[in-house]
Design a protein that fits this description.
The chain is of the alpha/beta class and about 375 residues long. It has 14 helices and 13 strands.
Length: about 375
């Protein structure tokens, strides 16, 4: 059986976990937490990066820091994970969904302006598959209407837009280090930002509403409850695992990109024949091989295709069910304009196996099995 995903262990994870235990500090903000934050500063060019227990929690912090009030609106694609919307719904916001581009599966930047109202406060682009949204247009709209930009870069760690790391371009950026991502810590994420004005509030939010971070830096002689907050701080064990992954990022990237390129090159004949569509990478984007997907003719073909692969020992999956069609999406959001591509394209998409230990021999098996799919017979 070729799994869809298998969590990576690249070598030093257990050694670093043991070091964390021997250091005698298992709660957060220890040596490995600091090392991970420094890696993100050095590699990605972010001024501040705070590890969190999940990307969901990073998004929740971003919603708080954006000062969203009940009844205000946030613009985002419907084709995304529920956390993108949940973070703002928890603050009482109304979610306004915008159609996607069929080429990248990202929010259609040309449709955002018509969705803006006097209640709009945030644009939340989602960088699907680690392929950047068209950020210049989004930033220009944010400046024009005085809006915040919160990047959901859960899939975009170490991917770039015109040379700028995803998650560092808007006001706030959110990463995921879930076990399905390129670099993992089991469950975890990070909140990134550049402006000093967010730091104190972010630290308080993350540390249960206390000024504990200041206490550990020696800035106050005791810490106390100063505002509302929650427990968004991951343990040192998680951070130790993640740091081993970040140290090995070049090798992780190399192996994932080799698999991505193999799929892309060897499935091209099916794309040329019109049976499938391959991922599109705009000139402005440098992707990170987070996933490889293909699009089939329609939902019926996709259902048969996934069943066929499973019968042949290959695990492949479809992705998000558009949020605007879900029960909660109808309750907490609305769709701006017409759903031309969101549902249609989501019903065609299939994600192929992609993980660190995936071999080119396994990729060859996947490709040869796909080429033998009876649905592609003339």
């Amino acid at each position: 059986m070729i799994d869809f995903n298998r969590p990576a262990c690249v070598g030093k994870e257990l050694e670093y976990i043991r070091q964390a235990v021997e250091n005698g500090k298992l709660c957060g903000d220890g040596m490995f937490t600091k090392k991970c934050s420094q890696w993100m500063a050095d590699k990605l060019g972010t001024k501040y990066s705070l590890l969190t227990t999940s990307c969901t929690h990073a998004l929740e912090m971003a919603a708080y820091l954006s000062d969203i009030q009940p009844g205000e609106e946030v613009i985002m694609p419907s084709y995304t994970f529920v956390s993108t919307a949940d973070a703002f719904v928890l603050r009482g916001a109304k979610v306004v969904f915008v159609d996607i581009r069929p080429d990248t599966m990202n929010i259609d930047e040309k449709l955002i302006e018509q969705a803006i109202t006097e209640k709009t406060r945030v644009i939340a682009p989602v960088h699907y598959a680690g392929v950047a949204c068209e950020m210049d247009t989004i930033l220009a709209l944010a400046a024009k209407y005085n809006l915040k930009v919160v990047e959901d870069a859960a899939q975009g760690v170490n991917a770039y837009y015109k040379g700028k790391a995803l998650g560092t371009i808007g006001d706030l950026g959110c990463f995921s280090f879930h076990e399905t991502k390129n670099y993992i810590m089991g469950e975890g994420g990070a909140l990134l930002f550049q402006k000093d004005e967010y730091l104190e509030r972010a630290e308080i939010l993350r540390e249960k509403g206390t000024d504990r971070s200041k206490f550990f830096r020696g800035q106050v002689d005791k810490y106390t409850w100063v505002d509302f907050g929650s427990s968004y701080l991951p343990s040192e064990l998680n951070a130790a695992y993640l740091y081993a992954q970040l140290e090995a990022c070049a090798e992780i990237d190399r192996r994932r990109m080799a698999a991505w390129n193999y799929y892309n090159e060897n499935l091209k004949e099916l794309a040329d024949a019109g049976y499938i569509e391959l991922p599109f990478i705009p000139d402005y984007a440098q992707h990170n091989a987070h996933m490889f997907y293909i699009k089939l003719k329609d939902l019926e073909t996709r259902t048969a295709f996934i069943r066929y692969l499973k019968d042949n020992g290959i695990s492949a999956v479809f992705h998000y069910v558009p949020l605007h069609s879900a029960k909660a999406g109808l309750k907490f959001g609305r769709f701006s304009g017409e759903d031309v591509y969101t549902t249609k394209e989501s019903e065609r998409l299939v994600r192929l196996p992609m993980f660190y230990d995936l071999t080119l021999e396994q990729c060859e098996t996947v490709v040869s099995t796909i080429k033998a799919f009876p649905g592609f017979a003339d």
